[in-house]
Structure prediction request, 134 residues.
Amino acid sequence: MHAAASSFARPRLRYFLSVLSVIAAGLVLRRFGYEIGLPFLVVKYGGSMLWGAMVYLICRLAAPRTRLYLTALVAVAAAVAVELSRLYHTPALDAFRLTTAGALLLGRVFSVWNVVAYSTGISAACLVEAWRRR
Prediction:
């Protein structure tokens, strides 16, 4: 029984640590990217790609035994939903979007390019996982 619980918890721990690593990488990129001379597109869309990878990893954390392509589809749907939510405005939601947490989690304005970057990050995370399983 203990071995079964351990084999169930191990992937979740790996995904959790991966989520934390991707969050740290995104924060470092946003904080220091310009200071070290990275171009705007790398900082802006690199962070968005990392955000997409984070969404994928959170989906894997929630359902580690789901097929990779299904996880990727759910992650893309979640990312698109978050991006589309930027078209909805209420005073409370707009106030939250003005905070650092709100900007990082929800963003401020709708952009189809963000959807492309999120999808790229999700695809990359899925491909890395598929490659690691080989």
